[in-house]
Amino acid sequence: MDIADIAATDFVEVDAGQRLGKVRAVFEAENPKGIIVTDDGSYAGVITERQLLQSHVEDDAKASSLTNPAPKVDQHEDIRETARMLVEGNTKVAPVFDGEVLHGIITEDDILDAVLENLDALDVADIYSENPITISKGDTVGVVINRLREHGISRLPVVDERGLLTGVVTIHDVVDVVIRDMDKATTGDRAGEIDRILDIPVADVLTSPVETVTLEDSVQEAVEEMLENDFSGLIVTDAGNDRSVIGVVTKTDVLRALTFTEEERMDVQITNIDLLDAITRTEIREDIAAIADKYSEMQVHHAHVRFHQHKEKLRGTPLIQSQIRLRTNKGQAAGSGEGYGADNAFYVALDKLERNVLEMKGIQADAEYEGQLLRKLNEL
Predict the structure, then answer these.
(1) Is 100 exposed, middle or buried (0-12, 13-18, 19+ CB in 10 A)?
(2) 281-293 vs 342-358: helix crossing angle, rounded to 10
(3) In CATH terms, are 3-119 and 124-254 the same topology?
(4) Residues 6+ away with beta carbon under 8 Å from 152
(5) Which residues of 200-221 are buried (b: 16+ CB within 10 A; e: fewer)?
(6) pLDDT band at 168 (very low <50, low <70, confident <90, very high)
(7) What is the pTM of this model?
(8) Matching CATH number, 264-366, of 3.40.630.30, 3.30.160.100, 3.40.1370.10, 3.40.50.1860
């Protein structure tokens, strides 16, 4: 199936010179997955809700100040590769081109709807992310924004003092309250309004009750729930207790699963791949494979590496955060770290990953295991 078969030719478009305040108003009025930005009629990029959340840009600034160069998709591209492009470009929408002509847009929802019937072969347990980042009702919107930015996620389960689920707060919830309250403020009131918004308690913006799924539910059922209610993700709870949070499953997790391959080499997916400087995808794959090869009991099914750029720089090199997550036959393993440049950040995260792997039940280095056997056989 060509992407042109499912791409939407009806989309929201703004000029790069448009005021950002108008762009925010478009999100509030039409709730698009993303907005295509053009410059004198030529494609310039996209603006998403996540960018609005991460932005400190004033309303009088131009739309170009928030434009993200989302990957261009050829209209004849297949679904698997397009899913990879969306995930690695860290975007929910991308332009579809017929040669040099903008044909339309493709969203994650378009892809998921097209493959929905094939998703019953997977269970939520196959693709979910465990150990989710949570927040309490007493925290503030400011804390929510910081955690969403820091971890590159779209939702936070809200838990009580016992750690039980009481609600969920999402990027959309935060953007909605920011846009609504900022519309009430004049330019002179803006600084004070921002401070007030950041102090709003989570209890005032969370959604409750929460739609949940269990590990035993099919991915098809989970995606149907997300598409029907326009959710970007669902909280995963214990089958015996729907308030016991064990993970999160998102549309991005499903897109990532679509890119899994059956090749002998390990599949590695990189989010924000444009941040790579002194390291390549091949080197990242080889370094992760080298760690996996040390442990005979662990088989890596898929690896996801995410890079995030901070504003801080050292002699022109940005501070980068790297997060590595492995999906293995022993469960999930993760490591994160920061450094100046993507390569430094990656190797800090890689070191943390290996230390975390060693803490997994039933995992030990081959050399250590072989040494123990030899000692037992009295051959040393």
Answers:
(1) exposed
(2) 20
(3) yes
(4) 90, 271, 306, 308, 323
(5) bebbebbeeebebbbbebbbbb
(6) very high
(7) 0.69
(8) 3.30.160.100
